[in-house]
Amino acid sequence: MNDDGFPAERLFNQGYSYTYDDVIFLPGYIDFPVDDVNLSTKLSRNIPLSIPCVASPMDTVTETSMAVAMAALGGIGIVHYNNTISQQASIIRTAKSHKFPFSADLIFASPSDSIHSADEFANSPCIFVTESGNKQSKLLGHVSKSDWKNLSNKEARISAYMNTSPVTLPSSYDFNDVAGYMASKKLDFVALVNEEEENGEVVNLVTSADMERIKGLPKLGLPSLGEDGKFLVGAAVGTRESDKERLEHLVKEGINAVVIDSSQGNSLYQINMIKHVKHTYPHLDVIGGNVVTNYQAENLIKQGVDGLRVGMGSGSICTTQEVCAVGRGQATAVYKVSSIAEQHGIPVIADGGISNSGHIVKALSLGASTVMMGSFLAGSNEAPGTYEYKNGLRVKKYRGMGSLEAMTKGSDARYLGDTAKLKIAQGVVGSVADKGSILKFIPYTMQAVKQGFQDLGASSLQSAHHLLKSGKLRLEVRTGAAQVEGGVHGLVGYEKRYF
C-alpha cells in the first residue's frame, strides 16, 4: 500500500486554496531518458502544439515579435486587444506573414519628409520610404543610416537622395533562403515583403547580424503551423458588441483561435459572445474564461467552448483577490477545473502564477494542457516596449490589464468596467528585468520541464494526467519552513542562473 503523500483528489478536497508553492510532488519511477519526454499537447480542442507554452494577451507581452517567436518554438501567442481594430488586425497579418522567428521594428517615412537626426533610425539600419509614409502604402525605396550620415545637406527631402531600388525578398522565404541570398549578395540587410498584398507591404527587416544571432540560438523544434503552412496565431477579444466587428476583421486575417478575454468568465456577456462565435465561425476554436470553479467551467462547456482559461488573481501584477476578495489559489483552481474539463475533452490553459519551470511542471501535472505566461515572458527582447535603466538594471515595463494605465486604453471592458462611472484598478504597473530572447530561454525552460516530468515518472503530458487521475501521482503540502528549505538559503550572497 502506498501511504506516501496524498492523491490529488484527497488533497484538493479539504477546503484549502493552494498555490503552486504550497504543494510538492513526490518522485516516481524513472525508466526512460529525459530526452524521451514528449511535451506535445493541445491548446484547444482542435489546435495541437509541440510545447505547452502560450503567451498572454497583454499589451506588454504579445504583439508581432512575441507571436512569431512563440509559433516558431512550437507554442502560440495570443495577441491583445487593448488597441484599435486595425492595429490588432495589422499585428495578426504581419505575424502570419512570417516564416522564421524574427521580427524587427520598422520605420517608415514619405518622400517629402526630411531626416534631421540619427535618432530617427532608432536601432534600424534603414528607414523605408512609402507613398504615404506608413507601412500599408507602396514601397518606393529606403534610406540607409550609413548613406544619411554621409549627406552634406541633411535638411534635404528624402526624395532627393533615397535608394529607389531597394533589395526585397518575399516573406514566404524561410531562414535558409534569406541567409543564403544575403551571403551570396554580401548584403548587410534585406527587406521582406508580403507578396500577397497588392502594395507589397514590408513586414520585416533582416540584418546579417540577426542571421548570425539566430544561428547561435538553441535548435528549434517543430513550429506551430496551420493547414495553410503559416504560423499559428491567436487573438483575444472582449464581450462588447463592437468586439463582434473586431472579430470579423481578425478572422479575415486568419486567426487560428479566439480567446474571450474576461477576468470573470461566467457571465451572460461571455456566454452570448461564445454563442455568436460558434454560430458565425463554426470552424474557429473559441477559448472561454477566466474560470476557477467547477460551476463556472461547466457553464461555459455547455456553450461549446473548445478550451478553458483558468486563473483569477494569481498573476504577479494582478490584485483581483486583494481588491475584490474573489478568486482561488492557482494549484487548486487548475486541478478542480481540469477534472471537469477532462470529462468533456476540453483542454485547460493554466493562466497566471508561473515564475519558474517548477511551476510549469506543477500546472501541467495537475491537469492543465498548456500554461499561459505573462511576467515569465515580459522583459524579453520579443515583448513590446523599449528597455530603460532603473537603479543600474536594464528593464522593460510590465503592467496588468487591470491597472488604471491599461484600463484607460480600453482593457476596462475585461473587468466589465467600461460603463462604470468610477474605475477601480485590479492590477499594477511595474517593470521586469531584461531576460534576453525567448528563443534562448524557452528551450532551456522546456528542458527543465522534461527533467521534472522524468522525476515524476511521466514520459508525456498524457502520462502525467493518467498518473494524476489514477492517484499514483502523490502530493504533500509544504510548510513555510519546507518552502524556505526548498529554495536557496543560508548563503551570504549568490547568483541564480539556470543555463
TrEMBL record:
Name the pathway it acts in: Purine metabolism; XMP biosynthesis via de novo pathway; XMP from IMP: step 1/1
The UniProt entry, under Pfam families, shows: CBS (PF00571), IMPDH (PF00478)
**Required co-factors:** K(+)
Provide the top EC class. Answer: oxidoreductase
Q: Which Gene3D superfamilies match?
A: Aldolase class I
**Cellular component, GO, one term:** cytoplasm
SUPFAM superfamilies in the cross-refs: CBS-domain pair (SSF54631), Inosine monophosphate dehydrogenase (IMPDH) (SSF51412)
Query: What is catalyzed by this enzyme?
Result: IMP + NAD(+) + H2O = XMP + NADH + H(+)
Mind telling me which InterPro entries this protein's record contains? Aldolase_TIM, CBS_dom, CBS_dom_sf, IMP_DH, IMP_DH/GMP_Rdtase_CS, IMP_DH_GMPRt
Quaternary structure and partners: Homotetramer.
Descriptive protein name: Inosine-5'-monophosphate dehydrogenase
